[in-house]
């Protein structure tokens, strides 16, 4: 119950961050005079009542129907965002609103926004929020208005297991793709020597992290592999101490990312998923709540037997940690105090051997998930039978639990299609029924593949696009300044989590490609040439506030962090 309520509160907070951040940027990004007017995408004027349902099936968004109420597409986006913000806020402040109906509405609103958001919403955290939000509908109590008393449900552990499975897929895939991409920096363990200055929007602490010695950066990459690939297998351990170790490992990684990079609500959302690794008694200690032992079978045993079982669990935990250290040392050749380096390490396996191990490991992950799900299903059935006091309640609770069990099985099967993208051969071997379920639900974004930092960019310096305007082609070029992305080398990087400035993010992707691959950029420059108020407000400084420039250009530079002895402690970027 505490686990469920903590998770739902956290997801409500993430929804509040996401809707608020998006709302502030609607006019400049999607308004009639914005970079990508949403009216042009939906083409409501050329539609008719018969074609709307057909369009909705391919692009499920409430915007198709809001024109009937006199709202244009921009106003519809604003209304959905405002209502989403209010619902999320009420869900945070009162448990009575944290029900399935509320989270269904939040999910529908965000899906409606996502489906018309195009390139400015095509981020992994947006699809992760949609998938998490969809699962939250099942986690939340099924009631329009909840009673004041918060009651546990027989299926609570089952629905929280779906969250745990999503967390496993997210972390395991994020670790694996770093190696399957064959990016040299990940294989040489040098990725973090580049990451802090090449990421989209660094924080002030990112400069300090960049100054850390190379041996520490390499060892940090090794620990990233351990946390993302090895520790997720402990998510399903029956031993509580191993689950807690995996929880704190994930928590540590997410906090460090938040401190050194501005990834909006992404890492906060991942922390929310990690709540599924905790149990009622552990959270009760956090909140200083008296809680009855959940393991009644163990509590009924004699003290000596309980102590013996505790020792066995302690020994198994110690053995698991020793084995983990052994394999880390063996696979990454970790050496302490060798030469003049406190720690040295390098990958001791080949790309071929890793791919072979991955092919062997993928079916194991599916089996672990299946067996763990079966255990939760049996627990749900047991809780449904023993919890109620009378036959009528037993029947109703069992019937309700059966619906959740069927839903959990279907959602797990659908997720296998996206989980198995790591092994195409295994993906092809999935049942045609599973593939059909996935294809039929694909437009709802309820299951997606993940993989963070697949390859490291900015190896030769951070590419950065700088926009300049002028009234004279030969001189007088003045720079436009963005609020958050690196530009002015005399300005320290900002800390803006959980806000996501979507234009600043796309400018980072633009620098990695070309303007031909980013048609939105031409529209953006056109808006600057006309001094369009809604778009200019997305920028911190407009050098032509009274009259737009006659000419505009973009130049590609490469940025590098200053070194400490050069900058005398100044945390910034140097333009080369």
From TrEMBL:
Location within or outside the cell: Endoplasmic reticulum membrane
Highest taxon of source: Eukaryota
Domain Lipase maturation factor 1/2 C-terminal: 446-564
UniProt-listed InterPro entries: LMF (IPR009613), LMF1/2_C (IPR057433), LMF1/2_N (IPR057434)
Identification of the protein by name: Lipase maturation factor
GO CC annotations, alphabetized: endoplasmic reticulum membrane
Annotated function: Involved in the maturation of specific proteins in the endoplasmic reticulum.
TM stretches of this protein: 7-26, 76-93, 100-121, 127-146, 158-177, 219-239, 251-278, 308-328, 357-381, 401-422
Entry's family note: Belongs to the lipase maturation factor family.
Alphabetical GO biological process terms: protein maturation
Pfam family, one: LMF1
Annotated membrane topology: Multi-pass membrane protein
Assigned keywords, A-Z: Endoplasmic reticulum, Glycoprotein, Membrane, Transmembrane, Transmembrane helix
Keyword Transmembrane assigned: yes
Natural source organism: Trichoplax adhaerens (Trichoplax reptans)
Lipase maturation factor 1/2 N-terminal domain: residues covered: 122-283
